[in-house]
């Protein structure tokens, strides 16, 4: 469990840097590219430790998922994948939803929390859910209204297709990517 907890601490500690106003100081001292490199390396280290820690954690049942709960991630990960794809594109859905990445992460977290009741999964996916909610609240607090111009609908469609393809790939190769087959 140590690796999972250390990974959570590193990953979210690095992601707290911009909201603590440390980013401007570090960029001024190091420069933009070195800062981004250090940020990326530390975030990757944290994520890697989280994944490794989850894979070696002892199974400790905290609650028993309700019967049929395994279907929730199967259903919700499709829109979650589309939301995450929209976050990377200059599309209308990004403007309308404001937080497509965070909403996708929240869907991922909630769906996996309901379907799994072990401590390591609760810590791993629960931390992503808490991160998403806190960031949505923080962004809403500091963001004003936006008057973005509408984008071509093709970007929205591209995000839908990209998210659907990613969902299909992860669904079919989940046992290889995560090490756990999806029970259908």
- Structure class: mainly alpha
Radius of gyration, CA atoms, in whole angstroms: 18 Å
Given the C-alpha coordinates, what overall shape results? Answer: globular
Low-pLDDT residue intervals, each spanning 5 or more residues? none
- Share in β-strands: under 5%
Distance between the termini: 29 Å
The share of residues in helices is over 70%
List the helices and strands and how they pair.
Elements: H1 2-16, H2 22-30, H3 32-56, H4 71-87, H5 92-97, H6 100-115, H7 119-142, H8 153-177
Helix pairs in contact: 1-3, 1-7, 2-3, 4-6, 4-8, 6-7
Features:
184 residues, mainly alpha
Question: Can you describe what's shown?
Answer:
With 184 residues, this protein is mainly alpha-helical. It folds into 2 domains: 1-57; 59-184, no CATH class. Helices cover 74% and strands 0% of the residues. It contains 8 helices and no strands. It has helices at residues 2-16, 22-30, 32-56, 71-87, 92-97, 100-115, 119-142, 153-177. Helix 1 runs parallel beside helix 7 (119-142). It is globular, with a radius of gyration of 18 Å. The two termini are 29 Å apart.
């Amino acid at each position: 469990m140590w690796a999972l907890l250390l990974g959570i601490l590193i990953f979210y500690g690095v992601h707290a840097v911009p909201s603590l106003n440390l980013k401007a100081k570090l960029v001024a001292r190091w420069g933009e590219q070195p800062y981004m490199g250090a940020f990326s390396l530390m975030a990757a280290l944290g994520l890697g430790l989280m994944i490794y820690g989850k894979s070696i954690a002892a199974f400790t049942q905290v609650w028993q998922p309700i019967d049929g709960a395994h279907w929730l991630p199967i259903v919700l990960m499709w829109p979650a994948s589309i939301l995450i794809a929209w976050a990377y594109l200059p599309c209308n859905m990004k403007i309308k939803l404001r937080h497509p990445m965070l909403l996708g992460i929240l869907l991922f977290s909630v769906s996996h929390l309901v379907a799994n009741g072990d401590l390591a999964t609760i810590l791993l996916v629960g931390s992503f859910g808490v991160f998403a909610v806190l960031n949505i609240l923080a962004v809403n607090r500091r963001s004003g209204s936006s008057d973005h111009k509408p984008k071509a609908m093709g970007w929205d469609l591209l995000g839908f297709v990209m998210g659907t393809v990613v969902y299909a790939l992860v669904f079919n190769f989940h046992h290889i990517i995560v090490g756990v087959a999806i029970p259908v």
